[in-house]
């Protein structure tokens, strides 16, 4: 019996199996199947499925990893006229069981390795083992048992990762797969080619790799998970298996291309997409070893697979934007506004997709209000179209550009928060029947930042906000804790969606009424101060910092409490008592004369023991300078020293790559942060292609990379430079601990993973705190452990305290034989040639501000060991070049002579460069008073972050800055010994000769209005 004239997916597949009967259809490491064999094994399985009396489009789960068994299962389900539901074998059993029950699935195809996992849950299981299946085929290739469903038949269910954490089942239709795989404008694979099958079976792209290959007469080459994630193994398989076509997400593409720049040079067609393809990534592929074609694909699962494509060229790279191209045959795309009106070219709006590939909607949600599957009379009439939620525009060349997502996300205190996720967590508490999260923008004249508000409808009158908050915090990150408002019901729009705009209006009205109502009880002094500082009233148990407050708000709060209530608080007190209720109790206790104890001091002692249990792994320390190595792992690249170190590393011929760990959400953001830092200091280094931007966070487990990526870089790196740190002059030790203390511990562990690597840790000469004034120390050698100076450190900033404890940890590691080297720069000023300095550091804030005010403080005993940034970088790299210098500490200051320069000498030099009398010395208290009057009158002022350390007294009525007097001279013996082979560094220009250059830079900052005085 011959197939019908226009067969559906099952008919097309069986026709191709007959046409290419002797050709190889699929192969893995162990075996291969011809088209005829694959067809026969699928028919064998169809007979077993039919024994279960399946109805058309019944859902059948497939629990086996990518490979021949899974492909046989999918073809058999299609032949049977049922619907494939691919499952991820890596998911927990309970998750899989719940998912299957939610879909009302009773039949499960699985392999031997997974057959036991769901046995106890009552599913009808068929164990699929292609090796034991019969391969006899009848002459008609089994058309009598193949269900020739029409193209409208639902062939697959794929789950999208919903924003609330509950995946949505998308009904993929056979016509979409046929249109995609047999597209006339987009032909990814040709007859006889080898198509790498590396996608997870639950990802729609896996259909392109398998069914797409079979419909074109190609061979699907199965690549296991370990191969996909290991660039070396992947490249080997590409070469050995002569793979012609390959799909890789940009993330995988970046990992592979960074390790092996010519990885794809033998590939005919390289497909990528699913996330943003950066111009930098495309450049790497096209320059070093380009495939014949590099295609960028775009499209959601709701439109089967991909809907648009673009052949990436160097012209795209030079423009800095990689287009998502034009629609494939059978698809149409428009850009619309909020009213679904089509926008002209160039305007940004939501992308709406129509055509043959649009899915049949979400299972059981086809009529749900607000569904993204809609009908538009002016676009693809009488057909369902899909609102993607993506923003895009048509450019002047007639190509689509992806702009971003319309996800309901907000940024609060620099943290991106998804409102649906907050609502899902609230609902998961079981204490509320409805919840809606919104962002509240406070008065623009206030210093306060936006507020995360959640309106909830409790399940009973007995449920209070405190109970809900406690349940929420068990499952949610601390920074995502919203301000809770209990309401009777949630307002709805005409389309039955939650009216978030109305919620914001109602909240603002309630706050306004509380403030203006004559019947409302007047605010207490603390309530009034909090409302003024943070821009809105807060509940008695609302956490200031969770509600949008920052360290600057804490400083302002301390000042207002002193002004209005006459009580002197310390910043650390606010962090330890961050609610109105706690603050009121604290103030009452202080008024009674009770002594407050800083709990941060109690954190130091246990932290001083960190690192003592580390032992070096076996093996020799990697020599990073050899030709086969040269792979640098760098943190803190966006900082002042870090960006100059990067510039110097790129110039070194022995440096092959520099992996820069940057706190960012993705590689694109990481690249942007590095480029911004380069631009800030006017740096245009050559060999930018050596930069590898890695989004991560050294304060987190596995550096925020995930276990497999972490292990990859632990093996990849030849040397580590750890310069990253959290820097804040206000926040206490506890706020710096995660990044600066535990972060260093993480980096040392990273250096001691896979293979032993040297780690060079950048500390500071300030780690000893105000020890000169408090202990009488006049000289500190390089091998002095800061642990003996912790008594003085209690009067320093939380940042310095964290750096001191971190260095103690570094010494602990050194004592155990780990290859840790400590570099302590003095106070780092600008470049010796340009004079350009760090615009965010202490002196770049204080000096221009003093010039603007016309006065500077009388601090005659203040001095510091100043040093130029380029000396620090060159000395650090020289020391790092030889293993004989490892395991010690080096003070990176002027190696000869007195590097100490007094504050008076600096200001006298500045005064000499100004008209007479325009900059005078005044008593410290008078100077602070001038600073206060100017900083608190402005929402933005460079001195604002410094005010607590400038005005808050901590000992004998002295502030932290006043206690920095009589700084000891720091030794340089080890530094001089290390630099003997580098006379240019031993004879580097002294700071006194460079000081006029730095003064000109500071004065230029003042003239440009940097101080806003």
TrEMBL record:
CDD domains: A_NRPS, SDR_e1. Keywords: Phosphopantetheine, Phosphoprotein. Coiled coil: none annotated. Residues 517-591 form the Carrier domain. InterPro entries: ACP-like_sf, AMP-bd_C_sf, AMP-binding_CS, AMP-dep_synth/lig_dom, FAR_NAD-bd, NAD(P)-bd_dom_sf, PP-bd_ACP, Thioester_reductase-like_dom. Signal peptide: none annotated. Pfam families: AMP-binding, NAD_binding_4, PP-binding. Belongs to the NRP synthetase family. This is Thioester reductase. The lineage of its organism: Eukaryota, Fungi, Dikarya, Ascomycota, Pezizomycotina.
């Amino acid at each position: 019996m011959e197939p019908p004239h226009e067969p559906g997916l099952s008919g097309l597949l069986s026709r191709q199996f007959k046409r290419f009967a002797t050709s190889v259809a699929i192969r893995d490491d162990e075996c291969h199947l011809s088209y005829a064999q694959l067809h026969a094994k699928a028919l064998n399985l169809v007979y077993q499925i039919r024994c279960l009396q399946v109805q058309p489009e019944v859902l059948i789960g497939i629990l086996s990893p990518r490979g021949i068994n899974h492909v046989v299962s999918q073809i058999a389900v299609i032949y049977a006229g049922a619907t494939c539901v691919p499952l991820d074998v890596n998911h927990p059993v309970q998750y899989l069981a719940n998912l299957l029950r939610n879909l009302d699935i009773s039949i499960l195809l699985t392999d031997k390795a997974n057959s036991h996992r769901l046995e106890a849950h009552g599913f009808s299981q068929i164990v699929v083992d292609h090796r034991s299946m019969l391969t006899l085929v009848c002459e008609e290739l089994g058309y009598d048992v193949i269900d020739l469903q029409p193209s409208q038949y639902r062939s697959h269910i794929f789950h999208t990762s919903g924003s609330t954490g509950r995946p949505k089942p998308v009904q993929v239709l056979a016509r979409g797969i046929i249109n995609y795989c047999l597209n006339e404008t987009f032909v990814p694979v040709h007859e006889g080619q080898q198509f790498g099958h590396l996608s997870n079976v639950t990802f729609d792209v896996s259909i392109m790799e398998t069914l797409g290959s079979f419909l074109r007469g190609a061979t699907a080459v199965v690549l296991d998970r370990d191969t996909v994630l290991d660039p070396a193994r992947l490249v080997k398989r590409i070469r050995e298996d002569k793979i012609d076509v390959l799909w890789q997400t940009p993330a995988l593409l970046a990992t592979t291309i960074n390790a092996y720049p010519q990885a794809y040079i033998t590939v005919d067609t390289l497909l990528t997409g699913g996330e943003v393809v950066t111009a930098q990534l495309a450049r790497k592929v096209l320059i070093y070893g380009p495939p014949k074609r590099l295609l960028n694909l775009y499209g959601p699962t709701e439109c089967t697979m991909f809907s648009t494509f673009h052949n990436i060229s160097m012209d795209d790279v030079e423009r800095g934007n990689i287009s998502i191209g034009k629609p494939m045959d059978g698809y149409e795309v428009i850009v619309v506004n909020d009213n679904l009106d089509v926008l002209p070219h160039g305007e940004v709006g939501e992308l709406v997709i129509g055509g043959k590939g649009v899915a049949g909607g979400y299972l059981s949600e086809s009529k749900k209000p607000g569904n993204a599957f809609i009908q538009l009379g002016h676009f693809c009439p009488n057909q369902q179209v899909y609102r993607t939620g993506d923003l895009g525009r048509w450019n002047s060349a007639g190509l689509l550009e992806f702009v971003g997502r319309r996800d309901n996300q907000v940024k609060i205190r620099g943290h991106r928060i998804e409102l649906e996720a907050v609502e899902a967590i609230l609902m998961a508490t079981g204490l509320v029947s409805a919840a809606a999260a919104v962002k509240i923008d406070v008065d623009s004249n206030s210093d306060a930042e936006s507020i995360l508000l959640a309106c909830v409808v409790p399940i009973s009158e007995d449920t209070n906000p405190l109970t809900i908050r406690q349940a929420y915090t068990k499952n949610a990150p601390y920074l995502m804790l919203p301000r809770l408002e209990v309401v009777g019901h949630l307002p709805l729009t005409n389309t039955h969606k939650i009216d978030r705009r109305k919620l914001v209006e109602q909240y603002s009205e309630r706050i306004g009424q509380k403030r203006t109502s004559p019947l409302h009880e007047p605010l207490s002094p603390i309530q009034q101060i909090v409302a003024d500082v943070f821009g809105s009233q807060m509940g008695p148990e609302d956490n200031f910092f969770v509600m949008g407050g920052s360290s600057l708000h804490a400083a302002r709060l301390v000042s207002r409490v002193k002004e209005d209530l006459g009580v002197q608080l310390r910043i650390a007190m606010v962090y330890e008592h961050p609610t109105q209720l706690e603050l009121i109790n604290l103030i009452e206790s202080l008024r009674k004369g009770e002594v407050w104890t800083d709990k941060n001091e109690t954190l130091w002692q246990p932290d001083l023991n960190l690192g003592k249990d580390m032992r070096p792994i076996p093996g020799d320390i990697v020599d990073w300078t050899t030709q086969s190595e040269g792979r640098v792992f760098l943190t803190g690249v966006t900082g002042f020293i870090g960006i100059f170190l990067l510039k110097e590393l790129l110039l070194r011929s022995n440096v092959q790559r520099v992996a820069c760990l940057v706190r960012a959400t993705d590689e694109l953001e990481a690249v942007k942060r590095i480029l911004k830092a380069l631009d800030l200091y006017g740096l245009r280094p050559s060999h930018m292609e050596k930069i590898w931007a890695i989004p991560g966070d050294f304060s987190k487990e596995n550096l925020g990379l995930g276990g497999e990526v972490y292990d990859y870089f632990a093996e990849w790196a030849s040397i580590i430079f750890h310069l990253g740190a959290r820097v804040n002059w206000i926040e206490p030790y506890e706020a710096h601990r995660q990044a600066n203390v535990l972060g260093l511990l993480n980096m040392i562990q990273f250096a001691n993973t896979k293979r032993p690597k040297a780690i060079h840790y950048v500390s500071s000469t300030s780690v000893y705190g105000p020890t000169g004034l408090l202990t009488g120390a006049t000289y500190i050698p390089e091998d002095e452990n800061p642990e003996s100076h912790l008594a003085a450190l209690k009067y320093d900033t939380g940042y310095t305290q964290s750096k001191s404890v971190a260095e103690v940890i570094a010494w602990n590691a050194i004592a155990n034989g780990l290859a840790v080297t400590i570099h302590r720069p003095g106070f780092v000023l600008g470049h010796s040639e340009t004079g350009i300095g760090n615009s965010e550091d202490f002196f770049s804030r204080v000096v221009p501000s003093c010039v603007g005010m016309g006065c500077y403080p009388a601090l005659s005993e203040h001095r510091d060991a100043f040093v130029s940034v380029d000396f620090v970088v060159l000395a650090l790299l020289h020391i790092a070049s030889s293993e004989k210098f490892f395991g010690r500490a080096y003070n990176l200051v002027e190696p000869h002579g007195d590097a100490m320069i007094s504050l008076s000498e600096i200001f006298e030099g500045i005064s000499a460069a100004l008209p007479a009398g325009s900059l005078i010395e005044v008593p410290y208290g008078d100077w602070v008073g001038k600073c206060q009057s100017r900083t608190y009158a402005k929402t933005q002022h460079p001195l604002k972050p410094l005010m607590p350390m400038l005005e808050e007294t901590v000992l004998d009525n002295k502030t932290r800055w006043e206690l920095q007097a009589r700084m000891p001279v720091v030794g340089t013996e080890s530094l001089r010994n290390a630099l003997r082979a580098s006379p240019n560094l031993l004879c580097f220009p002294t700071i006194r000769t460079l000081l006029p250059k730095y003064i000109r830079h500071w004065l230029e900052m003042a003239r440009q209005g940097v101080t806003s005085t």
